[in-house]
Amino acid sequence: QLRWDPTEPLHELPVGQGNWVLLFPTYSIADEFASPLGDNPHSLTTGCYQVTEQGAVIEIAQQEETLSGEGDASPLLLQTLSSATQQQPLKLVVSTAGLGQLGSPAGYQALTGLMLSIAKTVQQSPHVELWLITECATATPNQVAEVRPEQAMVLGFAKNLTLELADKMRSVVDVESWSAQAAKQCTRVISNGLAQPWVLLRQQKLLAPSVVRVTADSLANKNRKLKEDGFYVIAGGTGSLGLSIAEWMVRMGAKHIALLSRSGVKDAAVERVEAMRKLGAQVVVPKVDLTDRAALASVLDSLRKDRPLLGAVHAAGLFELCPVQDLTVDRCQSLMANKVLGMQWLDELTEQDALDFFAGYSSIASVWGSAGNFHYSAANQVVDAIIQRRRQQGKPGISLNWGPWAESGMVTDESGDQAEKRGLLQMDQSVGTQAFGRLLNCDQAQMIVADINWSRFKPLMEITAVGSLLKSVTDPENPADLLNTEVELNPEDIAFKEELAECPEEERAERLLAYLKQQLANALQMMPEELDDTQPLIDMGIDSLLAVEFKNRVTKVTEVELPVVRMLGGANLRDVSQWMAEAYNTQISGDAAPEQDDDALVEGVL
Fold this sequence. Notes:
- By secondary structure, the chain is α/β, with parallel strands linked by helices.
- It has 19 helices and 19 strands.
């Protein structure tokens, strides 16, 4: 997950030296930033811009230009930046701090056009470095001001540019709220320069992001048990990921699933939907465009007439790789709208529903950026922001920043191969779905879930400024150490250990079965009589992490090693108790244990 740590103190360098161009929402806000610069700049040019539902307009040196609706480079800004030379480089500072709220489709589109135009202009301008100032684009613990999704979108654009325009995009400073004091801090930060690709200014302190590993013992120890009396809504429900979530929900006890989809059920999805219905679940598939607020409201109202809404998952999304210079505003919007507008409408339209959970499927592209994903990084940053805002409002929410999934329809063979060479491995859907179930029950607003070879990935990222985020993560010498947390035996464990040693050999399997049922019931927060000891463990809501914790306790009591992969390969509790009894008896007698045929075990569960 992301952690925000104080940065090292800034150097006391002179403020404002060099050549500056400012582009702010108003001249008065620009003047607040410029005031601390004093007479130090070699040159200072101030401009402003307007973003309305009709588009974006910039004004510099009393010249006005309406930006192209396609997001083309700005001739006026190009001319302004043309004075930069190798000896006299230029700082372009663009601020969206102080910009009014923009929550409409046209407002998002106009802001996208502005940022795309600036990116293309800077790309074509030698010896120019770009600095951005945003306002409440992300949240920190105990933050008062609500996160603003349109500001988050700008931060997402910047994360892409940090990689795609690595020699030009310097950093983003995100302020909690714009003020004269914040302006003074921003001038100091930009004058000093920064090693971090983005920082937050909170209560006059600078905070930098760091990715830190989450250990198994800090997570919830069970999947969430779902209810039978209401609808669980999955936006993007007929896609590969949406169907995987739906199938997990049915296994967890859900009886009513609504798969929201623009296109309905097609091809292989038909069989998967029918399979869920045969298990007794009501699965409805309303056709709806998630970007159409009125249409989505109508679908949700029709579901409520049948039964209440209990949970929502937004798993809709599109993916493409496209360099900034080839993007247009329309191309950005066609990819971003399902996430940017779909998440916003789903959040607003379920405000009065007593939801048990609200999950957003996001991406690692909004954690550390992704070259060729200007639009995709921004869309997922908005997903993160809306979840953060829900948490600030006291509503449930978790954003899951996924790495690449196998068979998701979002990764081509070519892009998957390229990602693997960089250390980004494709995650098996069963593993991802197990992680989803586990994380849905933890009290976190945002988690990063990815299969990464850090020894490959980290050195590549360290070539860029983004590498500073990854200083705390490495590949463990033994990956199993992440899961093998120490187990303390309780009096019940100790008593059973003595009982097992003293009981007749022929009774050990049944004694073990009773003990295993009790331990698994404790882990799943159920009563032992609620467990079916003939049901496969993987269908009971036990995932890889929970299986390891369960295994560790049982192994310490019995001193019999139990392969986790075998447990999750279709085995039930009776199978497990029989295996353990046989191994225990062999261990007591001193005979050599029979060799396991590892090739026969289920591959890839972990």
